[in-house]
Amino acid sequence: MAGPFKFELVSPERLLLSEQVVQVDLPGTDGDFGILEGHSPFISTLRPGVATITMPGGAVQKIFVRGGLAEVSATGLTVLAEKAMPLSDLKADEIAAEIRNAEEDVTDAASESARQAAALRLAQMKDLAGALKAA
Fold it and tell me: What is the secondary structure of 18-67 as a DSSP string?
């Protein structure tokens, strides 16, 4: 069995996780991939999805990531996520209400920049809903 390695998950808001872990599964742009101790160095972009982190002892954490970058190096794995939040913090009814609000904002936008901002928010909420359903 692979041993633990250093994993850090960072979003623009904060450092979400900095732990020794035994495995991390990530939603890569070109497909999902898993990292174990001693993995070859590489860099990958991430698509919206769920990061699954396995801790020593077998406990599992699931965190929604909305894009970003993963870097595997000799010192471990670092994920720089555009946005990240634990799946346990997501509530389906709240996300559904946010999707409805964002759809209305897209329809009611008074300018192109307002429409684009609302469309981005709508895409983010749909990504969250999809991650919650997939988990």
Answer: EEEESEEEEEETTEEEEE-TTPPPEEEEE-SEEEEEEPTTS-EEEEEE-S
